[in-house]
Each structure stands twice: as C-alpha cells, then as structure tokens.
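User: Polysaccharide deacetylase, Robbsia betulipollinis:
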Amino acid sequence: MDSVPFFPANRAAPAPLYPWPDNQKSALFLAVDVDAESAWTAKDPKNYERLVTMSYGGYEARVGVPKMLQLFRDLELKATFFITGWAVEAHPAMAEAILRDGHEIGHHGFAHLLPDPGDPMILDEMDRGLDALKRRLGVVPVGYRAPLGESCEQLRVLLKERGFVYSSSWRDDVRPYRQILASGASGVIELPASMSFDDWMFGLTHRFSPRPMFPREHVLSIWNDELEETREWGGLITTILHPQVSGRPIRFKILREFLHTALDYRDVWITTGEKIARHFAECEAGDPTMPPV
Ligand SMILES: [Zn+2]
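Assistant: Predicted structure for Polysaccharide deacetylase:
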C-alpha cells in the first residue's frame, strides 16, 4: 500500500456544465461493442476450437448486428459501433454494413485483450486495430473504448499520440470531461459510461461468464430510472450494448422499448460519441477557464 501515491488516480477537474445543443436537456450516447468471437478468444485462444463458445460471438454477424441495424434504421438513430480489429477481419461484410448505414466506427482493440498496465500487447492491440479499420473499411477512428473495461496511463497517452478525440471507458462522471495525463498535459475527451447500461450484466450467461439473467421488468426499471434521473441532472447516458446480447429476441425487445422511452422525452439527444465529443470540444474552445489542448 506504501507504493500507492497520495493522489487521486484521475486528476481531471469535475466535468464542466456545458449546455447540450438545440435546447436538449441531456444526451444518450448510443454505443455498441462489437466483440464478436474475440470476446471469447481473448479469454483463451483455444476457445476458437470450442465451437459452441464461438457460436455466442458468431451470433453477432449472423443475427445480432443486422437486427440492431434494422432497429436503428427504423428509429432513424445513428450509433457508434466499437469494433475489434479481429471482428473486422473475420466479418468484413458485417463491418461494411455498419459503415454503409452511416454509423460511427470506433476502435475496440484488435483481439479484445485487456489493456493492463505494463502489458507489452498494448501497442500492438492499438496499431493492429487501427490497421484493420483503415485497410478493410477506410476508417480512421476518432473514438476508442477499452476492451474489458480497463485502461492505463500508457494507453491514454497512446490515444493522444494516435490522434483520437475521445475515449469512453471511465466510470467516474455523468458528463463528458477532458482527461488530464499524469504529465499534466491534456488528454482526450472522456465520455464516461456506467455499468447500468452494460447489457452483458443482465442478459448473457455462459460457463466462462456465469451470471443470472434479468427479465424485461428489471432491466427497464434500471434503464428507465437512470434515464429519468440523468435527464433531470442534464447528464450523459452511455450505453455498452453487445449484439450477442441485445440482438437476442428478448433483449432486443427491451432495447427497443427503452429507446422509444428515450425518444418520447423529445429532449434527449441520442447520438454518436463523435458528435458528443465534437460538441464538447466546441464548448471548451469558447471557455476561457479551460486550459489549451
Ligand atoms: Zn468489448
């Protein structure tokens, strides 16, 4: 414990209270993590030979992603899809369909490996992921979400160096803020997330990821209450949806109902991470109290 510094790990100031555009009261960052089979091979590459385990991830390209794309088309919503490089290489048609529908493509590692501090794979995961998105889709992503919900100083310095605009990984606020690196320099914009909107917690169970399943009433109670109160606070809701979860019939129905509830407010800005981050950057540029980036 003596090696733990007497500073908060995150030294960024509290999030500034910038208004949302067009008199919107709050924002909903509609974010989907397309791990596909790499969610399972990241745990153990040998899982590639465990075909039923692979089939959990394989559901995304076969059913989950097409269903979610259809839903977003029907509701006229644009989302951000954080895709692993492996998923782009293995399922190019799926990735192209996402792009064709006009959604944002974000970086989600290559093999969905945990970016643990000091891990030599961090650089490789970053650059192989960038290469797959560029080569297969012609995309240079501006947004990043850390696989398995972890990050470290080396990675956030790398995000800045590689020209990312935002990350969506931290759990410590209800509004966007600017990361401050350990050196004191400005980092990328953070669009914080909450476990309340990680569908994996409620809707997927497997012997390598054992969890109870939650019915519609429970999930909608959590999601709608979070939305209602976050809207009152003028905050940001960030989803962590997985097509191998929310693309399943019962989960899909829950997601559709939740999005209808959000749309019915008519003052919740449902959009991509890039739009939210660009709006933050515009507000920041006009704010004399903010340090230059
Ligand atoms: Zn993931």
